[in-house]
Amino acid sequence: xxxxxxxxxxxxxxxxxxxxxxxxxxxxxxxxxxxxxxxxxxxxxxxxxxxxxxxxxxxxxxxxxxxxxxxxxxxxxxxxxxxxxxxxxxxxxxxxxxxxxxxxxxxxxxxxxxxxxxxxxxxxxxxxxxxxxxxxxxxxxxxxxxxxxxxxxxxxxxxxx
Length: 161
Fold this sequence. Notes:
Shape: globular
Largest sheet: 6 strands, mixed
Number of helices: 5
Radius of gyration: 14 Å
Mean pLDDT: 94
Low-confidence stretches: none
Distance between the termini: 28 Å
Strand order of the largest sheet: 3-2-4-1-5-6
Strand content: 15-25%
Structural class: alpha/beta
């Protein structure tokens, strides 16, 4: 059962002085809409959506929320590009100790998303995420996790053609 999905934000404006205020491009919004539709069709709704405080991730989360029923949005200050994956894992372990069946969608940045996959699955497993890509994980605090699926907008375009 997939209970954790780790997602990178959609394509954003080019790097600028204030990285935190970079917005999604039109292409980025389209990528996220595609992934939101796919995720909603592939898996049951999520209970929580944890998101970085950066603008592009909050915009990504807003689009993802449109496809999720009754999902609770929480801005997690540690979900920034240079955040610590084990710190996020500890936070999620606390949530799952209280709510073992909780399903969580995390929206963040490279390189943190890669390190999160490693923290929730196997040492050495740090996939590269294209924009709006996501990894679906079956995770239990007692036994660890298993990466079940990795999907990106490019993968969806190949499946549909």
